[in-house]
Amino acid sequence: MRSIFTNKNEIPTIEQLELALGETYRLWKSFEEFTNELYPNAKAEWNISSEKFGWNYRIKDKKRVIIYLLPRDNFFKIALIFGQKAANQILESDVSETIKTALMEAKVYAEGRGIRIEISDKSNFNDIKKLIKIKILN
């Protein structure tokens, strides 16, 4: 499934994002604010690689993306990529078994293992915050 924003000539506005995400907009903002609290020098930006996949929002440091926020229709996905050290910390943590399984089943690339988690309610809220923290610390 691709982004709800596909026009490469139009960067999504806050108003468009809020309308598209509906009730989940509050969760999007919470994850964005949490990431910025833990890493105040992070830079947030909209990015589009092609109209096929549409716009994504990413928060990054100088070298790497910390978290990707992928807008959909009334929900969003969070994507994170973890190196082996961070992956090991996640597997030893108390995050849900579903997330651990997704991480272990993810294909390994040079930059690490990538996972995407659908956010349509608060059910994974604390686990996502733990993942963000592990990502920033590694």
Concise summary:
The protein has 138 residues and is α+β, with helices and mostly antiparallel strands.
Labels describing this entry:
alpha+beta, 6-stranded antiparallel beta sheet, 5 helices, 138 residues, Aspartate Aminotransferase, domain 1
Topology overview:
Layout (H helix, E strand, L loop, with lengths): L13 H8 L3 H14 L4 E6 L6 E6 L4 E7 L4 E7 L1 H9 L4 H9 L2 E2 L2 E8 L5 H13 L1
Antiparallel strand pairs: 1-2, 2-3, 3-4, 4-6, 5-6
Describe this structure in words.
Helices cover 38% and strands 26% of the residues. It is α+β, with helices and mostly antiparallel strands. Strands 1-2-3-4-6-5 form a 6-stranded antiparallel sheet. A hairpin with a 4-residue loop joins strand 3 (65-71) and strand 4. The relative contact order is 0.18.
CATH hierarchy, class? Alpha Beta
Average of per-residue pLDDT values? 95
Order of helices and strands: HHEEEEHHEEH
The 3D shape can be described as globular
The helix-and-strand class reads: alpha+beta
The N- to C-terminal Cα distance equals 29 Å
| Number of continuous helical runs | 5
CATH topology (fold) name: Aspartate Aminotransferase, domain 1
Compute the CA-based radius of gyration. 15 Å
* CATH architecture descriptor text: Alpha-Beta Complex
The tally of beta strands, per DSSP, is: 6
Strand order of the largest sheet: 1-2-3-4-6-5
Percent of residues in beta strands: 25-35%
The number of domains is 1
Low-confidence stretches: none
Specify the biggest β-sheet. Answer: 6 strands, antiparallel
Helix content: 25-40%
